[in-house]
Specification:
about 400 residues, alpha/beta, Aspartate Aminotransferase, domain 2, Aspartate Aminotransferase, domain 1, seven-stranded mixed β-sheet, five-stranded mixed β-sheet, 14 helices, 12 strands, globular
């Protein structure tokens, strides 16, 4: 009999659902410990810190299916997923190739914490395969990239990463937070491990912090065993909220794809806007690649205004619908200045080298009407300079 669960829309609702005692909605198992009879090892004990309660198990099954992986392990945050994965793959003396422009928290971990552990990082241009070759050395063990970078939405040569990694025996790791499995599934390109901050689009309601690592059963088991010792387990109530939030992922992301495209086009055409960073725009350097790889370009975009940081502050202060707050991917539209939040731990010269100016604005679109958001953006832009420069 053919499997009726084919599209991601159906998988989000039905895949991996245990239907415990006939419950349509996954119950919350608010228990820290369970009957451990028959356990074969420490990692098999039924205990909340070991990430194997019914809430964990149901989530892991669903998330693995969504990305096309053999297994998954949910974590207490996106950074817990990233750091635990890297500390599973890398050991003292090893080195990792990492894409320039990765999320500020990832950059800080690779630069500071990994250095303290004797793990080296070599920064690469994700668009330039020759830079990967030049940076690779005898102790290189992994390559880490993002589907879309934060906050400039760059899309690297993702099709080249997995073959490059296989050719040299490296582990390929990708952060797929911004794209989501609705728009892009990296395991289908041959990546070994996919990580997400499930705080963002996967949950979609700005009310939990969570993460996940997805890949082969072998890699996920190793990551799980490391996580069991590091302690980054997800609370069962947060697991319940993530499980519920996933059900509407496809509906939310498709709406955000459409809003993102419309609002990027509006901003691109506005005379007060200097530059828009959104891969759905034909003028964006990553446009052709994004269109080839992704179903949509999601609902996060960034832009610079004519007038720089002062103009950005004026603009943000006049907004009525977007909320000035960190994070992204929720049902409410959020706006922030990355130099003050996500990249605040980078030195000013480091931010400038990455193209993150003091006046850069990042906007994460919710599921409000695009018409209402455009009207509010137009209102906020009215007092700003009318001299337009060339957009990209």
């Amino acid at each position: 009999m053919n499997d009726p669960i084919r599209s991601i829309d159906t998988k989000l609702i039905h895949a991996g659902e245990p239907r415990i005692l006939g419950a349509v909605a996954m119950p919350i198992f608010q228990s820290a410990t369970f009957d451990a009879a028959g356990q074969a090892s420490y990692h098999d004990a039924r205990y909340i810190r070991l990430n194997n309660t019914p809430n964990h198990t149901a989530l892991n099954t669903k998330l693995a299916i969504l990305e096309g992986g053999e297994a998954a392990i949910v974590t207490a945050s996106g950074m817990a997923a990233i750091t635990t994965t890297l500390l599973t793959v890398l050991a003292t003396g090893d080195r990792v190739l990492a894409q320039r422009g990765v999320y500020g928290g990832t950059h800080g971990f690779l630069t500071n914490e990994c250095a303290a552990l004797g793990i080296g990082v070599d920064w690469i241009d994700a668009n330039d395969r020759s830079s990967w070759e030049r940076a690779r050395g005898p102790r290189t063990r992994a390559i880490f990239v993002e589907a879309m970078t934060n906050p400039l939405l760059e899309v690297g040569d993702l099709e080249g990463v997995a073959p490059f990694a296989r050719a040299y025996g490296l582990v390929s790791i990708i952060d797929n937070t911004f794209a989501t499995p609705v728009n892009f599934r990296p395991l289908e390109l041959g990546f070994d491990i996919v990580v997400h901050s499930c705080t963002k689009y996967m949950n979609g309601h700005d009310d939990i912090v969570a993460g996940v690592a997805i890949g082969s059963a072998q890699w996920v088991q190793r990551i799980t065993h490391r996580l069991n010792h590091l302690g980054g387990s997800l609370d069962p109530h947060a697991a319940f909220l993530l499980h519920r939030g996933l059900k509407t992922l496809a509906v939310r992301v498709r709406h955000q794809n459409e809003s993102g495209q419309r609002i990027a086009e509006f901003l691109h055409a506005h005379r007060a806007v200097e530059r828009v960073y959104y891969a759905g725009l034909p003028s964006h350097p990553s446009h052709a690649r994004a269109r080839a790889l992704f179903t949509g370009c999601a609902g996060t975009l960034s832009f610079d205004l004519v007038g720089g940081a002062a103009a950005a502050q004026t603009f943000v202060s006049r907004l009525r619908l977007p909320i000035q707050a960190p994070s992204l991917g929720g049902v409410e539209t959020l706006v922030m200045l990355p130099a003050l939040i996500s990249h605040a731990n980078l030195a000013p010269e480091e931010r400038r080298a990455l193209g993150v100016g003091d006046g850069l604005i990042r906007m994460s679109l919710g599921i409000e009407s695009a018409d209402d958001l455009i009207a509010d953006l137009d209102h906020a832009l009215q007092p700003l300079t009318t001299s337009r420069r060339g957009n990209v």
